[in-house]
Specification:
The chain is α+β, with helices and mostly antiparallel strands. It has 14 helices and 17 strands. The strands form 4 sheets. Strands 14-11-13-12-16-17-15 form a 7-stranded antiparallel sheet, sandwiched between helices. Strand 4 (81-85) and strand 5 form a beta hairpin. The structure holds flavin-adenine dinucleotide.
Length: 454
């Protein structure tokens, strides 16, 4: 079996960019339809000593899914949901399945896949595994890693590697880092192998979910509310999403609801999930403690209303892309931070990051994100290449402060090519050496996803 490699300009250009704005034209594009073709392709690449970068839907914000050199392997034609075992709540899927499609396939059985990146309608399961993606509901259910039970990957030499979580509750099998090979591949950004199949855990849809949009007079009180909501036993938040004044304006416009608290300086979208009646009074009492006006709170109850509420959050990246589009030709791009800190420190981390941005005379960032997990996205619109460099310098300066607070350089979008220079700020020499050793064990010639992570 030999797989055709596409080399016409249209195909190459079609895969030359991901959402980061980075442009890297691959030497060829492969679109395998089954695992055996991936194996064949990797054998061929080994024989010709060519690099291969796997790609899903190319929604990466870090340049991870464009090929620094060599071939690009698109998994989009491997998009079968192989099996959904309703009893055991397990889905077996190929890597090119869109998360949104998986959700729809499970919904009729009262099940769902917990990871919910805002890009869920556009991104693949393989990409989510390779980036360990997360989303608003990560607050309650954890990131993708927790929901991957097993996976099969094709390695750089074309052999197959299968990893399955053991399920034991106790384990003393030497060093912890060798316990569970599934964990090596989750978050590996295409650098260890091409995931060709995954077994995913599904969860039962909660009996009831209540969404609440709560406007606040200012950021300090909104963030105080978020911290309190995590600590208050009477409410059960499964997501706590923050919108600054400008983000709330964008969301309001997306909902066509100009009259919704136009004076507010910030807004928090919370979801409470459980079995009994939603504790609406407890939520309102908590919000009022932080200066919210109960009359401004919007409740989203029922499946249709919750879908509406998702538009609040989904409008934000789309608006930022629109704002950036005119500047792409001049070397500008959207630059979104992905750092996170322990959640009680988020207010102080944001203040520090803003002071640094001001000192660098940057245009104001639009800030929103998963503050329940201490994880804001500051979104800058860089208008040209010089501004890209100035914003990068400011972000790097902020990262020193973030790391000093016990934070991380990247909470969900991965390292890719754009952030690899910042990885050693956080990972010490021994951590870097261990990561290189793992990479060398699986891909000694460094042919998989060159430029990603290391
Ligand atoms: C509007 C928007 C909103 C977003 N919101 C979120 C969010 O809320 N949370 C979040 O975590 N991310 C978010 N992202 C980032 C991105 O969507 C996620 O990282 C997503 O999981 C990437 O999936 P993908 O299919 O597009 O992968 P790609 O971008 O194609 O690839 C991403 C990485 O995965 C690797 N890869 C892809 N498939 C495979 C495979 N089968 N085997 C091995 N490696 C593979 C690639 O080599 C690359 O390193 C957002 C992006 C956008 C554009």
């Amino acid at each position: 079996m030999s797989l055709a490699l596409l080399r016409d300009e249209g195909a190459l250009e079609g895969y030359a960019r991901d959402v980061s704005g980075l442009r890297r034209v691959p030497e060829a594009v492969a679109r395998p339809e089954q695992a055996a073709e991936v194996q064949e392709l990797m054998r061929q690449s080994a024989a010709e000593a060519v690099c291969v970068t796997p790609a899903g839907a190319q929604t990466s914000t870090t340049g991870a899914s464009v090929a620094e050199r060599g071939w690009l392997l698109s998994t989009r034609a491997m998009a079968r949901i192989i099996d959904i075992d309703r009893e055991r709540r397990i889905a077996r899927v190929e890597p090119g399945v869109l998360i949104g499609d998986l959700q729809r396939a499970c919904a009729g059985d009262g099940l769902f896949f917990a990871p919910d990146p805002t890009s869920e309608e556009e991104c693949t399961v393989g990409g989510a595994i390779a980036c360990n993606a997360s989303g608003p509901r990560t607050l309650a259910y954890g990131s993708t890693r927790r929901h991957v039970r097993a996976l099969t990957a094709v390695l750089a030499d074309g052999t197959e590697f299968h990893a399955q979580r053991s399920g034991v509750e106790k384990n003393t099998l030497g060093y912890q880092l060798a316990h569970d090979p599934v964990d090596w591949f989750v978050g590996s950004e295409g650098t260890l192998g091409v995931v060709t199949e995954a077994e995913l855990s599904l969860l039962p849809v909660p009996a009831r979910v209540l969404g609440l949009g709560v406007p606040f007079p200012d950021e300090a009180r909104a963030l105080g509310f978020i911290v309190a909501a995590r600590q208050e036993p009477r409410v059960k938040p499964r997501c706590l999403e923050y919108f600054d004044r400008e983000s709330f304006a964008i969301a309001r416009a997306a909902m066509d609801d100009a009259a919704w608290a136009p004076q507010a300086g910030a807004m928090v979208y919370a979801e409470d999930a459980g079995d009994g009646d939603p504790p609406l009074d407890d939520w309102l009492a908590l919000a009022e403690r932080f200066g919210a006006n109960a009359g401004d709170v919007r409740a989203f109850d029922g499946e249709q209303a919750l879908r509406e509420a998702r538009r609040l959050r989904h409008a934000l990246p789309a608006a930022m892309h629109e704002r950036t589009a005119p500047f792409l030709a001049r070397g500008g791009r959207r630059m979104s931070t992905d750092w996170a800190v322990p959640y009680p420190l988020a207010a102080s981390a944001l203040n520090t990051a803003r002071q640094i941005a001001d000192a660098h005379h940057l245009p104001p960032a639009v800030t929103y994100g998963h503050l329940g997990n201490g994880h804001p996205h500051q979104n800058f619109v860089a208008r040209d290449a010089d501004e890209v460099r100035r914003i990068e310098r400011a972000i790097e300066e902020s990262l020193h402060a973030i790391i000093a607070m016990g934070g991380t350089v990247s909470a969900e979008h991965g390292i890719g090519k754009i952030k690899s220079k910042w990885l050693p700020l956080q990972a010490g020499p021994r951590q870097m050496a261990l990561m290189r050793a793992l990479k060398h064990e699986f891909d000694p010639e460094g042919r998989l996803a060159p430029g990603n992570i290391l």
